[in-house]
């Protein structure tokens, strides 16, 4: 059964729940339990979740930087490739750099952040 899927049984009624990214995972979960003996009925409550695109992630990070009172967003470049964000630019303080990095980590689907932001003296 795909990760993120839970099966529960009550009075012969089998319920699948959870979230997966692809329809084939939803089908695989159902196919792995549909022939279980003793199961009389099935409810498939597994939902599909979309994975954000690189443009979505980049837009969310840039919007978060613009909203922040601590960051001059015009000095920061955000590049997204797959699940990796690369930040470049110059800031006035380490606190500003931390705010930028935290904004990148807070975006959905981000697994790696390359922080190339320089703190100016």
Low-confidence stretches are none
Number of strands: 6
Largest sheet: 3 strands, mixed
End-to-end gap: 54 Å
Structural class determined from secondary elements: alpha/beta
Q: For the largest beta sheet, what order do the strands appear in spatially?
A: 1-2-3
What's the shape? rod-shaped
CATH class group of the largest domain: Alpha Beta
Q: What is the succession of H and E elements?
A: EEHEHEEHE
| Beta strand % | 35-45%
Q: Report the CATH topology name of the largest domain.
A: Histidine-containing Protein, Chain: A
Can you walk through the features of this model?
By secondary structure, the chain is α/β, with parallel strands linked by helices. The protein folds into two domains: 5-48, no CATH class; 54-119, 2-Layer Sandwich (Histidine-containing Protein, Chain: A), CATH 3.30.1340.30. The chain contains three helices and six strands; from the N terminus they run ββαβαββαβ. The chain has helices at 23-33, 54-67, 94-106, and strands spanning 5-10, 13-20, 41-48, 76-81, 84-91, 112-119. The strands form two sheets. A three-stranded mixed beta sheet has the order 1-2-3, with helices on one face. Strand 5, helix 3 and strand 6 (112-119) form a beta-alpha-beta unit. The protein is rod-shaped, with a radius of gyration of 21 Å. The N and C termini lie far apart (54 Å). The mean pLDDT is 90.
